Amino acid sequence: MRRHVLTWLLTAALLACAWMVSKAALPDSSTIEAFPATAQIGEETGARNLVVTVTDARIASRVSDAAGWTADGNWLVIDLEAAGAGEHGPSALSLAELTIGERTFSATERGTTFARQVLVTGVPRSGSLAFELPDDETRETGVLRLGIPTGARGEVLLDGVIDLPLDLSTLPVSSEIVLDENGWARR
Question: Is residue 58 situated within a structural domain?
Fold first, then answer.
């Protein structure tokens, strides 16, 4: 009888250990996950294939560009300088997302923005990204994520991403912001 109890206790202990190992193991997608680099406004931050300096972050009720496009709403505007890095050729900044809680917002492609801007390795370009947000979201904190997807045969992989934590409630608010023209950075 004593031997049966010991066998059951040992089996239960091994099952508990196996359960803990399964919970501690990384998900299958972890081998292709991006390596995040955390940025701060005004500081140059590099990922494996991208270098970014976010120069300003503001909120406005109207945005416009030099070509005459305007839009009313609740806008977060990010001014930045970015360049490709590494041995890749020209690449587009096609990942520009703002995550607030469980919601993710993509940078608008309306007007003349920096969304999907082609970047050259080692030569920074500058411009503005604009995110249209619901009114209640400007009192929250969020994370701006920037990246250049890579991959072959239709795969979308992120080699490295740059994350910028933002407390939207502390950002300056303007009635209108004119988006920076896309161009070469003036360093």
Answer: yes
Model pLDDT for residues 43-64, shown as the tens digit of each residue: 999 988 889 999 999 999 999 9
pLDDT tens for 106-154 read: 999 998 999 988 888 888 999 999 999 998 777 889 999 998 877 654 4
Residue 140 lies in a domain: yes
Dihedral of the alpha carbons of 33, 140, 131, 58, in degrees to the nearest 10: -120
Residue type, 87: E
Q: Determine the Cα–Cα distance for residues 112 and 131; give it in Å rounded to an integer.
A: 13
Q: How far is CA 79 from CA 27, 68, 117, 127, 181, in A?
A: 35, 19, 13, 6, 10
User: Residue 168 is part of which domain span?
Assistant: 32-184
Q: Is residue 18 part of a domain?
A: no
Of all helices (H) and strands (E), which one includes residue 73? strand 70-84
The secondary structure of 99-166 as a DSSP string is: EETTEEEEPP-SSS-STT-EEBBTB-EEEEEEEE--GGGGGSEEEEEEEEEE-STT--EEEEEEEEEE
What's 120's domain CATH number?
Answer: 2.60.40.1240
* Contact in structure between 65 and 112 (CB atoms under 8 Å): yes
Angle at 59 between CA 54 and CA 62, to 5 degrees: 120
